[in-house]
Design a protein that fits this description.
This protein is mostly beta strands and about 160 residues long. It folds into 2 domains: about 35 residues, Ubiquitin Ligase Nedd4, Chain: W; about 120 residues, Nucleoside Triphosphate Pyrophosphohydrolase, CATH 3.90.79. The chain contains 2 helices and 9 strands. The strands form 2 sheets. Strands 3, 4, 5, 6, 7, 8 and 9 form a 7-stranded mixed sheet that branches. A two-stranded antiparallel ribbon has the order 1-2. β4 and β5 form a beta hairpin. It is elongated and about 60 Å long. The protein binds zinc ion (ZN). The site of zinc ion has 8 residues, from loops.
Length: about 160
């Protein structure tokens, strides 16, 4: 069972996983409540400065200590582009404007959906911000190993433009 959905939100009874509408879903055996878990949306941002890409070194799991693109979860009610801009500002100190959607990335069995954007810098100074231990520029042809499943596809789609 996924974290946070062990108990029925309606009556407080423990949930069980049953096949409902063709998929395993948490269901309450007492009141019949079915929990439909939503996907989780994250924004990923590729920012080029003089031909180099901004990466941040992650200070949290997953991929603690590894370099990755600035990214973060979209708050409920927040425009996705606004989340992209906010996460970049929090993690890198840079003020950016989104220039295009690179693509939307998901895969079967993974609760996280990524919206990948390209952005350009309009202000700020590159520095390590919240939830990262470093922020730096890398030549796109000499990036460190990127930790996440969709990273290579996002990078390829960004380059193909
Ligand atoms: Zn219940």
């Amino acid at each position: 069972m996924e974290a946070g959905v062990s108990y029925c939100g309606r009556c407080g009874h423990g949930l069980v996983v049953e096949t409902v509408h063709g998929k395993p879903r948490p269901r309450c055996p007492r009141c019949g409540n079915i929990v439909f878990l939503d996907p989780k949306l994250a924004a990923v941002v590729l920012i080029a400065i003089d031909g180099k890409l901004v990466l941040v070194r992650r200070a949290n799991e997953p991929a603690l200590g590894e370099w990755s693109f600035p990214s973060g979860y979209v708050d409920r009610g927040e425009a996705v582009e606004d989340a992209a801009v906010r996460e970049v500002r929090e993690e890198t100190g840079l003020v950016v404007e989104v220039t295009r959607l690179i693509g939307v990335y998901s895969r079967t069995g993974d609760p996280i959906v990524l919206a990948a954007y390209a952005a350009e810098v309009v202000g700020g100074v590159l520095q390590a911000g919240e939830e990262v231990s470093d922020a730096a520029l890398f030549d796109p042809d000499a990036l460190p190993p990127l930790p996440f499943f969709h990273d290579a596809g996002i990078l390829r789609a960004w380059r193909d433009r």
